[in-house]
Amino acid sequence: MWSARLRAGDVDVFRTIFETYWTGLWHFARRSVPGDVAEDIAQDVMADLWRRRDAIDPNITFAQYLFKAVRNRVSNYWRHERTSLAVEEVSEPETPIGMGSAPMTPDHLAAANDVEMALAFAIRQLSEIQRAVLTLRWVHEMTYEQVAEVLSISPDAARQHGSRAQRTIRPLLAKFRIP
Amino acid sequence: MESSNSPRQEPVSWDAIDRYLAGRCTPQEAAIAKAYLARCGLSGSQVKRVVQRAEGAGEQAPSTQDAWQALIGRLEGLDQIEASPRGESTPSSQPWTSLKTGRGGAASRTPISSLGTRALPSASKIRRVGGHSLPQWMIVPAAAGVLGLVLLVVAQMGIFTRAQRGITPQIREYATSTGQQLQLTLSDGTRVTLAPQSTLRIATAPTTPSRTVAIVGEAYFDVRTVPGAPFIVRTGNVATRVLGTTFSVRRYPGDAHVQVAVTSGKVAVSGIAGPRSALTLAAGGVGFVTDSTAIQISADSARQYTAWTTGKLVFHEVPARDVLATLTHWYGYQFALTDSALASYRLTTILDAQSSANALGTIKLLLNVDLTFDGDVVTLHPRQARHAPSRDMHRLRHPLTTPNAEVGR
């Protein structure tokens, strides 16, 4: 019913969609491009959603449409930057980001008894594509088919990336588990 | 699911946890997954938050509020786009929609942004807002006019000047609360009287003065003619276009239709159903427009729909529920009926917009009810249940307008 109201030009619905997805879209773009570019891309995608609201396929979810659009724009960005690197290669972080220069190991974190930090650490160990799958799957609650569509990979590949990501996380959580 | 990497045998299927976190599991799986995560010291929403934060390398996304304002900035004319019925070209909005300001749109924000969303500025603050140096399309509250007195009261109580949807120089919002009226003069000379519990939003463009406003609630317009530039009032999906005229528009949240009453000149009303929801109203005309249709009621009744601008609330055969809904806007009372049949009795009366006591007294008499007060809630109890008006006697008349009618019998 959101899509019908969006078509009818309901600004409130548009605003709700914006508020629901803004942060997610920015982060999703930020994986692969600098922060200000991520902001421009997320803005462009939202502006497009509004301008093309008549033309949007009602059979796909907003999440699917928006993340796919972000991904396409990220690809275009790199194409325009005349880089020969594939997006995934460019964006692969060389070192886990955001944990400071002296990375803590999961064991350290386990000792610190902060399961949330440890989980964050484990997730940052994942490959870019694995994190993308987990984000779309767990945060944006997509089916693996939808995840696959957004990332332009096969559903089987999406499942595989998901289960590999979970295999990285699993032992870590187990350390914190009360038997 | 493989468990080769696991240091010990997992007591739970990760497929279940995966499906739980994806919001696609059975209630049993949810219970299992929740229990497992809880034993690890986590909740599902915590996991989601951590995953979300891990994206973007731990940086914070720009605030949603700022981003929305920037977007509004570049989608300049959001209102105009929306005001135009489907399929119709919107030439005036094109230069803006194709304009890419990016984050520069946000940078051009002005001090008006500093007004809090819930700020209750004094009248002088509103004037300052109006006099601020941006475009010609400015609003200044009129000090004079039929509602001067009302405005004075309003000024003491404080008027909401807020941009509920983010204050930007492009979209400004003026709102009244219960019982308040606000008279505004737009920069083109058009005068607007805003009824209680109503909001006027105005889209402004730095270069092209727009003549479009959006209304939630009710407002009366005295539109200054500007050759070649129609004045457009948007209410929900309905656009009312005029050149120079006086008319009122009403659509409160929850109203099924938009009501347009024209007291002079001519207006064109268009909904989203093409010709089926389009109307042209001449002086005296009153139209009702829904998403699928438009009807015009007998001519020459517009005055009663605009009488509120002169302090009178005029009802002619209006169902009690609608009368009470209007009184809620004016007096702030919520009404409860112990006998739901009362809601559909049609009332014909003239009430005083300024005196809730008089109005409630009249309602009491007309519906033959007792009133009990509990805070803002007024409950209507039929006085004599056995002698409630029968179905064919449901047209109750005001004793003053129909002296011979027996009220409530």
* Helix proportion range of chain B: 25-40%
Largest interface in this structure: A-B, 59 and 56 residues
CATH fold descriptor of the largest domain in chain A: Rna Polymerase Sigma Factor, Chain: A
- So what's the overall shape of chain B? extended
| CA-atom Rg of chain B in angstroms | 27 Å
- Oligomeric form: heterodimer
Compute the number of strand runs of chain B: 21
Order of helices and strands of chain A: HHHHHHHHHH
How many strands, what sense, and barrel or not for the largest sheet of chain B? 15 strands, mixed
Could you say how many structural domains of chain B there are in total? 3
Number of helices of chain B: 12
CATH topology of the largest domain in chain B: Jelly Rolls
Please give a structural write-up.
The complex is a heterodimer of chains A (179) and B (409). With 179 residues, chain A is an all-alpha fold. Chain A folds into 2 domains: 1-91, Rna Polymerase Sigma Factor, Chain: A (Orthogonal Bundle); 93-179, Winged helix-like DNA-binding domain superfamily/Winged helix DNA-binding domain (Arc Repressor Mutant, subunit A, Orthogonal Bundle). Chain A has 10 helices and no strands. In chain A, helix 2 packs across helix 4 and helix 9 crosses helix 10 (155-176). The longest helix of chain A is centred in the last third of the chain and has 22 residues, at 155-176. Chain B has a 15-stranded mixed beta sheet that branches. A 3-stranded mixed beta sheet of chain B has the order 16-18-21. Chain B contains 12 helices and 21 strands. Chain B has helices at residues 14-21, 27-39, 44-54, 64-74, 78-83, 94-97, 104-107, 123-130, 148-157, 302-306, 320-331, 356-367; strands at 139-141, 160-161, 171-175, 182-186, 191-194, 199-203, 212-222, 231-235, 238-242, 246-251, 258-264, 266-270, 278-282, 286-289, 294-297, 312-319, 334-337, 346-352, 369-374, 377-382, 395-397. In chain B, strand 19 (369-374) and strand 20 form a beta hairpin. With 409 residues, chain B is of the alpha+beta class. The chains are: A mainly alpha (179), B alpha+beta (409). At the A-B interface, helix 2, helix 3, helix 7, helix 8 and helix 10 of A face helix 1, helix 2, helix 3, helix 4 and helix 5 of B.
